[in-house]
């Protein structure tokens, strides 16, 4: 596999960190961005010629564009952009604060949109590239108590589904990665809304009770983070770019069941759907 230059957001922890480590160990160059880039100091010391770092809050659009511009100017090209930064919020819709709602949309949906818009001129100019968006099986299923997380992921997938054919003629491929639950600190980093007593015992309340009862909801998850990272990296060399990449047996089963149920619902309404035609 020829060495490439990757641009990674959320590179300091979780899958972003693991992807960065594996890329560097394989000889690739990485422009690694994070809110706290000092968390990458150990990698910078080990791979001084391969690792480029920058502080970045992806919800700051002006800063995002500036960092992309610097990376292009200093590294010359970006072969693969891995949009990984994000986190989840938990709580019934009524329990969510205005700030938490705004953050979920800004971090999980708006930021990836602006990142693609920022890198696209470079990818077009160099004759192509790959954009990999970290999504989730939660872009197909829904869980009571996680409505805003699902909304942000369903929304960002709708954007990339539409944009993929727009940029295909420029040699730019887009892949949406849809993992199941992975053994990372994702569960420990959930933003949990203040509880309302009215929701105790409801579906959303039961989800909250489960999360409150364990130290980290992803500690015993089926997904192996090292294998997930390796699969993400390998996808960059698959041609044409896979539109979606489900990772994990739980992701495969949940997504397939959701799609089958949706088809069944559609078919059940066929008579009504066709009855309104002229």
TrEMBL record:
GO terms for molecular function: oxidoreductase activity. It comes from the Bacteria. InterPro entries: NAD(P)-bd_dom_sf, SDR_fam, SDR_oxidoreductase. Keywords: Oxidoreductase. Belongs to the short-chain dehydrogenases/reductases (SDR) family. The keyword Oxidoreductase applies. PANTHER family: SHORT CHAIN DEHYDROGENASE, SHORT-CHAIN DEHYDROGENASE_REDUCTASE FAMILY PROTEIN. Pfam families: adh_short. NCBIfam families: PRK06482.1. This is NAD(P)-dependent dehydrogenase (Short-subunit alcohol dehydrogenase family).
């Amino acid at each position: 596999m020829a060495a490439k230059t990757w641009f990674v957001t959320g590179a300091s922890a979780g899958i972003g960190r693991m992807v960065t480590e594996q890329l560097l160990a394989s000889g690739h160059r990485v422009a690694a961005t994070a809110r706290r880039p000092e968390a990458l100091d150990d990698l910078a010391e080990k791979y001084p010629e391969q690792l480029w770092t920058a502080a970045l809050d992806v919800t700051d659009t002006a800063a995002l564009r500036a960092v992309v511009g610097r990376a292009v100017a200093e590294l010359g090209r970006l072969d693969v952009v891995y949009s990984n930064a994000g986190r989840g919020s938990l709580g019934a819709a009524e329990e969510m604060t205005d700030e938490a709602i705004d953050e979920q949309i800004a971090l999980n949906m708006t930021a990836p949109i602006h990142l693609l818009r920022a890198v696209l001129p470079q990818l077009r100019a160099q004759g192509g590239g790959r954009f990999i968006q970290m999504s989730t099986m939660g872009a197909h299923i829904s869980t009571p108590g996680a409505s805003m997380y699902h909304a942000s992921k369903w929304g960002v997938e709708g954007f990339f589904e539409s944009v993929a054919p727009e940029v295909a003629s420029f040699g730019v491929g887009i892949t949406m990665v849809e993992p199941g639950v992975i053994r990372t600190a994702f569960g420990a980093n959930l933003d949990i809304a203040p509880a309302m007593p009215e929701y105790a015992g409801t579906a959303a309340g039961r989800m909250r009770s489960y999360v409150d009862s364990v130290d980290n909801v992803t500690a015993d998850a089926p997904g192996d983070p090292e294998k997930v990272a390796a699969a993400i990296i390998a996808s960059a060399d698959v041609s044409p770019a896979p539109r979606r990449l489900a990772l994990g047996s739980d992701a495969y089963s949940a997504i397939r069941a959701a799609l089958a149920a949706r088809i069944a619902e559609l078919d059940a309404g066929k008579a009504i759907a066709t009855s309104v035609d002229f």
